[in-house]
Amino acid sequence: MSLPAHLHLLIPSSSSSPSSSSTSNTYLEARLYLPLSRDAYRNDFPISESTRSSPTPYTSLADSLSHLNVKRLITAAHPWSKLGGSMLDPVISYYLLSAVFAHDRDHGQDGHTAVLTFNARGVGKSASAGWFDLGLRTDAEDFAAVERWGAHVLGGVKEIWRFGYSWGSMAALTASPPQTSSTSSSQPRISTMLLSPPYTIFRALTLLAPKSFTSALNVQTQNTNSGTKEGRVWLVYGTTDEFTSVSAYRGLNKEGERTGLVSREIEGAGHFWRGEDGERLELVISEWLADA
């Protein structure tokens, strides 16, 4: 299977020092998709277009990527690793990427957005994780670390967007607030899409998680300025989701109580977004990107 040209890397996890190249650090396998054709990459970048390539340690990059002038970074988290979830899930590696780059191209914003995906611990070449480690804490911490790394190497990022699919929606929602760089004088704007979060399962795990899904959603949406689109959360789900009932999803925004929550209900779509459902998802992602 081929992928858009990208950098396939090993980058620091939340338990590593972002500036250290020590072999004692723990790393996460990541793919950074930049809005360029393969020919536009410099020769010293470790370019991949394959799902079977081997990741290169991030220290091999000659310098930062600030010269690319990327303004928006989207970091994406995948479904639960214990059930086979990875950054190569088609929702992320195909539908999300297709929607993002098509949207930028159609709006005359070529080069505007980069997409950063990563494997959670225990997946692929990422650091190992025990079978009983549900990732309820480390997933969010690693998400924030990956996001910080991406913003650092890209430089000049003005918008930090988050995409969490299925189990990954918890990490995208509960990760610590984004930052661009230590020298930035202003915080980036943020927007989050939660796609098919297994809300019923999250609710059952409330006692085990550092933050519950509902409380985190409350904080995120209530801190949103009702007069702007800053910090809004998009909740996207299908009416035939195999893990969460449509009534449970609708209850998350009962009577529009959460002013910072935008709900999109896709009639007949399931949890896995295959075929025609995936094509409809691309349209919703494009709508989300336009919500700036």
CATH topology: Rossmann fold
State the oligomer: single chain
The CATH class, by name, is Alpha Beta
Number of separate helices: 7
**CATH homologous superfamily grouping:** Alpha/Beta hydrolase fold, catalytic domain
Give the averaged pLDDT, no decimals: 84
Shape: globular
C-alpha Rg, in Å? 18 Å
Helix content: 25-40%
Which structural class should the secondary elements be placed in? alpha/beta
User: Which CATH architecture?
Assistant: 3-Layer(aba) Sandwich
Query: Proportion of β residues?
Result: 15-25%
Structure summary, number of beta strands: 10
Distance between the termini: 33 Å
Largest sheet: 10 strands, mixed
- Following the backbone from N to C, one meets helices and strands in this order, namely EEEEEHEHEHEHHEHEH
Protein name: Alpha/Beta hydrolase protein
InterPro entries: AB_hydrolase_fold
Organism: Naematelia encephala
Features:
globular; 292 residues; alpha/beta
Describe this protein's structure:
Strands 1, 2, 3, 4, 5, 6, 7, 8, 9 and 10 form a 10-stranded mixed beta sheet that branches. The chain contains 7 helices and 10 strands. Helix content is 27%, strand content 21%. The chain is α/β, with parallel strands linked by helices and 292 residues long. The protein has a single domain (2-290), classed as 3-Layer(aba) Sandwich (Rossmann fold), CATH 3.40.50. The two termini are 33 Å apart. α1 (90-106) links the parallel β5 and β6 (113-118). The model is unreliable at 18-23 (pLDDT under 50).
